[in-house]
């Protein structure tokens, strides 16, 4: 299972991304890592990597890096030997089954569209990821690939989200919700209103409009929105999680009695922290492309980045691209559980 891993793009390159790649190799014995980037830096960081894991690593040297603030158009035109571009091209050539990058979202989206193209009938790829919820997790898309989306594109996002929820996560008939400012049919602007009409006729298990709190309720399996709204919501969730964690640490350190209370609750708090840890959910698939591209958070540490790599392995192993292409070619089967 060869996976191309861009270890140079992002806020914590290359050390944390190399650590994540090594952790993923230790977890999955069939994984082969194609590490894309500065050969000298990669070699130095891997000096202490255990030999059995090192045997499943191939370094693909490149000379350029796409900056986090670089304009997507410039990345496509002038960074043809960047670690990001080469990682995507390894998927195009068939040498890699998927690629992972923590770099500039806009550039990764543009490069992936340019190199891989979208599947037949897909207008725009979308970024999808799991969000912690009462029933385990909710799939949400788009999380940043498209700042705007037409009603038809939102309907396509819903279709692809349903396929992932069903074929990757085992939900036989995933419940789809369209994010809005209220659940009533009269709420929302003209784009969500038009998308609502399309979804009602789509054959999907569409439950209607949902609000922000429904993302976590367990009442819906897939939440659909445009990339601007989705990315703002995602970053808000991450910020709130960090605030709560920081506030709890402060309160449990306020006095010796609070410290004792913290010790008494340590195991429970540990389980809660683990279940809500954003690092466990890192790794968002860019669905709708003719190949698998996984976007990692730019600030991911080694633990979080390893989850993105494992997400790419899971998507490739389960033939995610083929499932989406098949379902879009036979839309009458979208609402069934027999894909």
Report on this model:
The protein has helices spanning 15-27, 39-45, 51-54, 72-78, 83-93, 105-116, 151-167, 190-200, 227-252, 256-264, 266-276, 302-317, 320-329; strands spanning 2-6, 32-37, 57-61, 98-101, 126-133, 136-141, 176-179, 206-210, 222-224, 284-287, 293-295. By secondary structure, the protein is α/β, with parallel strands linked by helices. Helix 1 packs across helix 12 and helix 4 packs across helix 6 (105-116).
CATH superfamily of the largest domain: Isopropylmalate Dehydrogenase
Q: What is the number of independent domains?
A: 2
CATH class category label of the largest domain: Alpha Beta
Strand content: 15-25%
Q: Give the class from helix and strand content and strand pairing.
A: alpha/beta
State the helicity in percent bands: 40-55%
Biggest pleated sheet? 11 strands, mixed
Which residue ranges are poorly predicted, with pLDDT under 50 across at least 5 consecutive positions? Answer: 332-339
Order of helices and strands: EHEHHEHHEHEEHEHEEHHHEEHH
Q: Round the mean pLDDT to the nearest integer and report it.
A: 90
User: Any idea what the radius of gyration is?
Assistant: 20 Å
- Beta strand count: 11
